């Protein structure tokens, strides 16, 4: 499946760029991610637990960043193997353009699944993938810029306030 | 007055007592001391190159006995194809290797890569997750026409392309057909898809392999329709085990529908592995595995052209079919779209010239093979859809157009190589018009329209070739086996009888119907006779059950063997009564001497055969046991006319079948109730194909998308109406001793076109100029067609 969307982020493209290369940010933003190690140059190792319709699985896989054109665009691609549940893989071309708000972040996502995930979840997979991408970029946006009222932001699992990344670098 | 025993009686199916009370003994019920369990690691990509397999972690997991990969099967035969098709240039079809476990490449989702044999199924499954397989994914080919484009990804690297064969039939008629079509007053053209189906027998496949070192004997219990065929293929072509060291048992089997004819990798694996690990190895398919490893059915894409003259007589028929083979050639995959399909294209009509071109294509999908009807439903759907379309284009009544073109004289040699021995297509159509109350349709339609519904009526005829098959003929056509069958009639000392048959019953009711025949011939009660089937160590070498052949072929062998029994018993009776053998008559279980009041009972004669104190030992041997092999001289040709009447909701596109009528000619009938049951089941499957069922693959990735009952819609009780079924039109087969034709597949062959013809009739009656709708005619497809 393929989909595209965009978001306005209240931060400069350089800040957005740095965030997207940070494993801590990625771990916090990938829905269901329980572990993320590595770096942008050599790739990240990720563990993600997700439930797709009737299939719940833990995916172990690799996330790579390529086509880096700082701070304008890059490509995220990943593949996760879920054992008996099958596999999921996908990629996103992300572009960051300066805008009045800060950065216009645009993403073109392509995702596919195989094995039991495709066999049992094909009718819901498109909606699932869109939901995953939306959540990822929503989390990303919140990590970078924080919610409208930073003090009201709920703490995340690891005790970090939303918008923590922006505060870290600014 | 209906009979209550013997031929023609609706004897109750004796096997149902155990089936309906949970006492059937299926392969999964067989558990052998020391048994291990195998779980297959299957490919979750449609096409890829295996770059590495690491089984070390799996091997050290708890309970693991051994892990097998393709390496363990190097030097061992692949799964063979049983039918060699020669293409239109005289070249043999392409037969790529079909390994038991993948060698180097995976070619469809579900292709087995490795197998873990463990103490328990759970341990086998856990260990399979620890096998590390690296697969370099390759582009998948799914669509047949794209698979034939130059530059398409190749399913088999050692072949030039994805074409298995390009078959022309009858090639000598091609030009004549082209000319006749070109010169026809009217030509109706139709492009259609015969949707891919999953057979879904209630019992999934199971295999239990066992090796006994003390006598070097391998035994395979398996869910098969033809245990001797499995023994032959697996023993001779895959594992190299001579017949006397290999026993194949197919006990109670819960439905086959064709998909349990074939020899599968899991059967060969369990037999092989049980020898390697010196313990029994059991595999029970899950429903998910069945979706990606049972051979699937149909999947033809066809263009058909029918020529008619100015008086609406058919002049010629020209077809082009793309037939999906899937990733490998299954056991009879090549035969289905060719000889079981092309030879049926005359249908019930005297079309003088017929040509079909069939291109068989490899794709990265599960292999396709025979499924209830096998080739004949595809042929019937083409013919009966194009005739209906022609009738609409010409503005003539579709029944009248059919009647006008019926074959009416028999025997009839078709232009597609077969000769129909008998039939009466006018009689079945007359009967159909009566039982379907076609005359009352207009009133029923008016009533539906009052309620805001569209009502449609669809009719079609069918012919099928059953009783497969004359060995000499099929040998010429490429079969790598004879297709006779065999029966041994063993009369016991006290007169009861065991009949060992080569046919296999997996729902057809042989255990009831076969004894009816013997009981009729001997005049003894049916319950004195039992059928033994399914065990190669007990039954003579017969070819099993498929193609509606059991009664016509194996039943004929049983009749021949029983005739031998009668001849010998008469000799014994003549001796006991001191009479001439020529004067002995057998009636109601009594031997009498014509013109006298002398008699001996059946049991006296059988006892004398086994206690030969007063016995003509100088003339005949003791005992009473005879075997006969029967090879038919022709196919049988059941035929009939079907009618579907349905309501269509124009708001939603939902179709509801209101009436379904079937008038069949099966020749003589042994058990009318069993015949009706066979027709009912067949129609339900045909309605499933027409309205509900579709096996779908992702066109880009080759992922199997309809792999559970959430996405693969099987017909349920409320999807089908009560049927009006009639088989009183009987033109007995002229060449087998029972005059029977076979009824197992008729329902599935005859019903899909009736349903689709009815859907189109309903749509057109509502002013929607729709010419065709592909199966399954789901509400969304019907609704989309209505929107133009």
Report on the architecture of this protein.
The complex is a heterodimer of chains A (170) and B (788). Chain A has helices spanning 13-20, 23-29, 116-145, 164-169, and strands at residues 2-9, 33-39, 43-52, 55-69, 73-81, 87-98, 103-114. Chain A is α+β, with helices and mostly antiparallel strands and 170 residues long. Chain A is globular and about 45 Å long. The termini of chain A are far apart. The model of chain A has no long low-confidence stretch (mean pLDDT 84). Chain B has 788 residues and is α+β, with helices and mostly antiparallel strands. Chain B folds into 4 domains: 27-138 and 202-255 and 260-293, Aldehyde Oxidoreductase, domain 3 (Alpha-Beta Complex); 140-194 and 296-407, Aldehyde oxidase/xanthine dehydrogenase, molybdopterin binding domain (Aldehyde Oxidoreductase, domain 4, 2-Layer Sandwich); 421-465 and 637-788, Aldehyde oxidase/xanthine dehydrogenase, molybdopterin binding domain (Aldehyde Oxidoreductase, domain 4, 2-Layer Sandwich), CATH 3.30.365; 484-630, Aldehyde oxidase/xanthine dehydrogenase, molybdopterin binding domain (Aldehyde Oxidoreductase, domain 4), CATH 3.30.365. Chain B is 28% helix and 22% strand. In chain B, the strands form 7 sheets. Chain B has a 7-stranded mixed beta sheet, with helices on both faces. The longest helix of chain B has 27 residues, at 550-576. The termini of chain B are far apart. The model of chain B has no long low-confidence stretch (mean pLDDT 97). Classes of the chains: A alpha+beta (170), B alpha+beta (788). The A-B interface holds A 83-84, 86-87, 112-116, 118-120, 122-123 and B 44-46, 109, 125, 128-129, 288, 291-292, 698, 700-701, 703-708, 710-711.
């Amino acid at each position: 499946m393929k989909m595209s969307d965009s978001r306005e982020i209240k931060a400069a493209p350089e800040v957005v760029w740095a965030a997207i290369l940070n494993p801590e940010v990625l771990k916090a933003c990938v829905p269901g991610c329980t572990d993320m190690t590595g770096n942008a140059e050599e790739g990240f190792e990720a563990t993600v637990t997700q439930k797709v319709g009737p299939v719940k699985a833990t995916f172990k896989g690799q996330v790579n960043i390529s086509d880096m054109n700082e701070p304008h665009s890059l490509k995220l691609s990943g593949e996760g193997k879920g054992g008996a549940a099958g596999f999921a893989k996908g990629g996103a071309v992300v572009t960051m353009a300066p805008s009045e708000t800060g950065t216009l972040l645009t993403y073109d996502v392509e995702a596919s699944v195989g094995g039991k995930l495709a066999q049992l979840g094909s009718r819901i997979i498109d909606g699932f993938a869109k939901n995953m991408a939306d959540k990822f970029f929503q989390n990303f946006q919140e990590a970078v810029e924080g919610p409208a009222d930073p003090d009201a932001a709920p703490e995340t699992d690891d005790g970090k306030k939303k918008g923590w990344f922006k505060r870290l670098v600014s | 007055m209906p009979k209550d025993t013997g031929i023609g009686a609706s004897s109750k199916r004796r096997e149902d007592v155990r089936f309906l009370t949970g006492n059937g003994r299926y392969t999964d019920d067989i558990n052998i001391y020391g048994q291990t369990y195998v779980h297959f690691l299957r490919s979750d990509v449609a096409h890829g190159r295996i770059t590495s397999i690491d089984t070390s972690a799996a091997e050290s997991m708890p309970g693991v006995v051994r892990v097998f990969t393709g390496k363990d099967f190097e030097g061992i035969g692949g799964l063979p194809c049983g039918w060699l098709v020669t293409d239109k240039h005289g070249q043999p079809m392409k037969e790529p290797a079909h390994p038991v476990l993948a060698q180097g490449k995976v070619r469809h989702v579900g292709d087995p890569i490795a197998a873990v044999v463990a103490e328990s199924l759970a341990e086998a499954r856990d260990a399979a997750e620890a096998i590390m397989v690296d697969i370099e994914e390759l582009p998948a080919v799914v669509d047949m026409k794209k698979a034939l484009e130059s530059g398409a990804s190749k399913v088999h690297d050692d072949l030039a392309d994805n074409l298995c064969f390009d078959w022309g039939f009858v090639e000598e008629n091609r030009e004549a057909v082209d000319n006749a079509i070109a010169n026809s007053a009217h030509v109706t053209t139709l492009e259609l898809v015969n949707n891919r189906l999953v057979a879904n027998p209630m019992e999934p496949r199971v295999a239990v392999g066992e090796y006994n070192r003390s006598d070097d004997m391998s035994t395979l219990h398996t869910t098969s329709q033809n245990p001797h065929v499995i023994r032959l293929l697996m023993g001779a072509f895959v594992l190299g085990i001579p017949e006397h060291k290999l026993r194949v048992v197919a006990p109670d089997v819960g439905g086959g529908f064709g998909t349990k004819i074939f020899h599968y990798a899991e059967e060969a694996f369990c037999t092989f592995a049980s020898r390697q690990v010196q313990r029994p190895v059991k595999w029970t398919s899950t429903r998910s595995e069945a979706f990606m490893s049972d051979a699937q059915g149909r999947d033809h894409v066809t263009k058909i052209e029918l020529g008619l003259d100015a008086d609406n007589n058919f002049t010629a028929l020209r077809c082009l079919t793309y037939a999906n083979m899937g990733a490998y050639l299954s056991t009879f995959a090549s035969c289905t779209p060719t000889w079981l399909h092309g030879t049926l294209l005359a249908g019930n009509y005297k079309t003088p010239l017929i040509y079909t071109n069939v291109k068989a294509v490899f794709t990265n999908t599960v292999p396709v093979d025979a499924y209830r009807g096998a080739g004949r439903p595809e042929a019937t759907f083409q013919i009966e859809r194009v005739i209906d379309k022609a009738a609409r284009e010409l503005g003539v009544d579709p029944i009248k157009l059919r009647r006008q073109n019926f074959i009416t004289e028999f025997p009839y040699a078709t232009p597609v190589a077969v000769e129909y021995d008998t039939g009466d297509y006018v009689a079945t159509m007359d009967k159909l018009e009566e039982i379907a109350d076609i005359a009352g349709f207009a009133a029923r339609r008016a009533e539906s329209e009052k309620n805001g519904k569209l009502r449609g009526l669809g009719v079609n005829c069918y012919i099928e070739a059953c009783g497969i098959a004359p060995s000499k003929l099929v040998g010429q056509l490429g079969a790598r086996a004879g297709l006779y069958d065999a029966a041994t009639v063993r009369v016991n000392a006290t007169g009861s009888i065991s009949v060992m048959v080569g046919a296999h019953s997996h729902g057809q009711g042989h255990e009831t119907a076969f004894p009816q025949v013997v009981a009729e011939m001997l005049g003894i009660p049916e319950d004195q006779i039992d059928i033994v089937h399914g065990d190669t160590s007990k039954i003579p070498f017969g070819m099993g059950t498929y193609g509606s052949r059991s009664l016509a072929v194996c039943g004929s062998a049983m009749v021949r063997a029983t005739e031998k029994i009668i001849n010998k018993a008469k000799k014994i009776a003549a001796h006991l009564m001191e009479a001439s053998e020529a004067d002995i008559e057998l009636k109601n279980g009594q031997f009498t001497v014509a013109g006298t009041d002398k008699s001996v009972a059946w049991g006296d004669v059988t006892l004398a055969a086994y206690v030969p104190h007063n016995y003509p030992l100088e003339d005949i041997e003791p005992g009473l046991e005879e075997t006969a092999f029967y090879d038919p001289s022709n196919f049988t040709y059941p035929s009939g006319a079907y009618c579907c009447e349905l309501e269509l909701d124009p708001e939603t596109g939902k179709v509801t079948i209101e009436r379904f009528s079937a008038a069949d000619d099966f020749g003589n009938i042994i058990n009318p109730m069993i015949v009706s049951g066979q027709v009912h089941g067949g129609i339900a499957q045909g309605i499933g194909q027409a309205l509900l069922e579709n096996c779908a693959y992702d066109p880009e990735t080759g992922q199997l998308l309809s792999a559970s009952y959430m996405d693969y819609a099987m017909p349920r009780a409320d999807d089908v109406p009560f049927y009006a079924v009639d088989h009183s039109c009987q033109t007995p087969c002229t060449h087998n001793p029972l005059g029977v034709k076979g009824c197992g597949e008729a329902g599935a062959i005859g019903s899909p076109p009736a349903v689709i013809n009815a859907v189109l009739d309903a749509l057109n009656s509502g002013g929607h100029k729709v010419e065709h709708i592909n199966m399954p005619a789901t509400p969304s497809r019907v609704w989309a067609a209505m929107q133009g």
